[in-house]
Amino acid sequence: MVHPKNEMISLDGGRLFVAVARQGSFVEAARRTGVPTSTVSRHIAELEEAIGVRLFQRTSRKVSLTSDGARLFERVGPLFDELSTALDAAADREEEPAGTLRVTAPVVTGASHVAPLLFEFSKAHPKVSVELELTNAIVDLVEDRFDLAFRIGPVEGADLVARRIWSFPYGLAASPRFVDDTLRGRTQITADELVQLPALVTSRRGAWRLRRKDGTRDDVRPSARILVNDPRVAVEGATRGLGIVCAPLEMLTARKNALTLLGVRGRTFEPREIFIVYPSRRLVPSRVRAAVDWFFRKSRRGGA
Fold this sequence. Notes:
Elements: H1 11-23, H2 26-33, H3 37-51, E1 56-58, E2 63-65, H4 67-91, E3 99-105, H5 107-124, E4 128-134, E5 148-152, E6 160-168, E7 170-174, H6 176-181, E8 188-189, H7 191-196, E9 198-201, E10 208-212, E11 217-220, E12 223-227, H8 231-239, E13 244-248, H9 249-253, E14 260-264, E15 267-269, E16 272-279, H10 286-300
Parallel strand pairs: 3-4, 3-5, 8-14, 9-12, 9-13
Antiparallel strand pairs: 1-2, 5-16, 6-16, 7-13, 7-14, 10-11, 10-15
Helix pairs in contact: 1-2, 1-3, 1-4, 2-3
């Protein structure tokens, strides 16, 4: 646990800590921030001294976060992203956002949550043209020239700014007939049964994320009977008795007459966090910043 001391913690120290955490390298963090490597090292050492814990494990090959460092980064990373966005906004004198805003999002979330808010954004900013591509593939934002992406966390990429925007509860379900025939009427199963039952899954390498009562996490890899990259199709297959399905709770409850919700003893399903993501750069175009702010305002008010 991080125990702050009384020493003053500098803003530069925090900014450089975030840079090193993202880059996994003092040298690369120095290059990205334009600060000498020796200065980066000194600020990190001062920060560790000020808060009384070691933040990085350093070897001749790599730099990695300690558990204390990871907890600190999880809290302060988004704060520095917001500060950077605010400073860019103050520096940008463009009166009205304009140009083409290119956005990519997962198929289901994009259709149900992203698109409606983009339509509203387009009406509010008539000088901005919008291009929305719905795909479950992780695209390279810079290479494919996208301004924004919506992704299920955790988000990887040192050159990306990721800010959590939505959290969707997930659940487990099967058809009433499957419950009667395969589970013998039980709606509570064990974690061992979970990995053995036929399942409809949406990712070949994906895992279902569960959390124990003590807070530790289990990543369970189900026995895939059907693989399809659209959860709506997986849910439809489950209604036909083909197996169990893990999907957004709102999607399962919408089919309450055709599905029975299941529980896993001693476990709960982790919600899926959706992040709004954009390339990290010194100046963010006004159309991108306006869109990010728009989604944050709307999501906090329950929009879409």
